Amino acid sequence: MGRGMEDEPAILFKSTEQEVDGVKGSSELQVAASTGPRTRPQHASNPKQFSKGSRRGGLLRGLTFWWPTNYSMLLFRTINRDMDLPNHNDDHVAQLLSSHLMPIRARITQCMPGSLTAWKRTVEHPKRGTPGVCNFVDARTKWFDQAVRMAIEEGISQVVIIAAGFDTRAYRMHAPGVKFFEIDLPHASAKKQSLIEKVLKDATKYPRPEYIAADLSCISLARALSTSSYEPAQKTIFTCEGLLYYLPQGAAHRLMADVGQLSLPGSRFLFDFLHLDVLQGTSNPCAYACTAKSVANKGEPFVSGMQPTPAAVRAFFWPHGFDLSELLGPREMAAHMLPHLVWDQEVPPILSFFSFAEGTKLASSDRE
Question: Model's pTM, two decimal places?
């Protein structure tokens, strides 16, 4: 696949820290071509306002401030499966973890029929919630699952899960000769290991990955993996689920550069990303304001985005030896992973401001 960037000029990757604070990055991260008027329309969101979260004392802040993001993602990942909705994901381990971490919720859902439906309706309220968030996480889980399974079937022997959180693929997708590596913050990694030992006691049935406790904001991915048995000479699939939009652009590019340096041709890198126009406030899709305020309430605001075009995503991959092999927008993701859903442009069935990309490491001869 060629470079192909000439037909779709775009801002490649940008952080709101630069938009708001006026900090300039290196030339390769700046505007690739004119992007038109920079005036924000009246209806658009204000990224600086959202970065501070919702107002103190408000209901949304009260509901989200004390609730860790990884707990929320665990709940969203299990809800469709718990409700036995069509085309739900296969993550049975997430249900076990959720029940152990949140036993009161598990007991309520068992004793009160209809409580799951009521909870989902509340979370996805079209005016005061985030409609489509459960389907979004469900579809995202299925997409990453599918990619990892396919990679293993095609002979890739290492799976590196970046910012693992409560990811369960190491315990569900183990195969002979395949190594899994989970990278997360030291305290998060320690908590995860303790939880796994309590919930998945049979290490033969649920083989453990190699845990790597590392803060990637302080050390490089290369240095983190150097402390493990990771082999750069083997093909690897790297997953980066739910992370890039929390990283400033420089950190995102450093991560991509590390993946490029650590990868053999044929290796793969998968991530989801926030649409740049939404981050900058030139577009205001359904559910974005509530989503952005909710994550900011936890001290984790969205700071980076990318244009959802092949040219922009390829430009992110190309300097590091990768080329774009798949790009799915929200509508395509829903059609592929949750085909029973009907697309509604006003209130989409999944969050409509994220897209999904997979890149493949090229041999030097393929880049010429």
Answer: 0.85
Give the separation between CA 143 and CA 91, rounded to whole angstroms: 12
| Secondary structure tally for the chain: helices H, strands E | 16, 9
Q: Which residues contact 5 (CB under 8 A, 6 or more apart)?
A: 32, 311, 314, 315, 318
Q: pLDDT tens digit string along 131-157?
A: 999 999 999 999 999 999 999 999 999
Closest alpha carbon to 137 in 115, 122, 120, 150: 120
Is domain 46-367 given the CATH code 3.40.50.150 in the classification? yes
Residues 6+ apart with CB under 8 A from 21: none
Q: Are 293 and 54 in contact (CB under 8 A)?
A: yes
Helix (H, G, I), strand (E, B) or coil at 96: helix
Q: What are the residues facing 275 on neighbouring strands?
A: 306
Q: How far is CA 272 from CA 57, 256, 257, 269, in A?
A: 32, 13, 17, 11
Tell me how far apart the alpha carbons of residues 68 and 75 are, in angstroms, rounded to a whole number. Answer: 11
Q: Which helix (H) or strand (E) holds 356?
A: strand 354-361
d(CA 68, CA 72): 7
| Domain-wise residue ranges, the chain | 46-367
- The structure tokens 């790009």 sit at 327
CA 77, CA 91: separation in Å to the nearest integer?
A: 8
Secondary structure letter of residue 368 according to DSSP: -
Q: Which two tokens stand for residue 202?
A: 């049979």
CA distance 293 to 50: 5
Each residue's pLDDT tens digit, 53-97:
545 544 444 445 456 788 889 999 999 999 999 999 999 999 999
Contact partners, residue 26, CB within 8 Å, separation at least 6: none
Helix (H) or strand (E) holding 126: none
Question: pLDDT tens-digit profile of 235-287?
Answer: 999 999 999 999 999 999 999 999 999 999 999 999 999 999 999 999 999 99
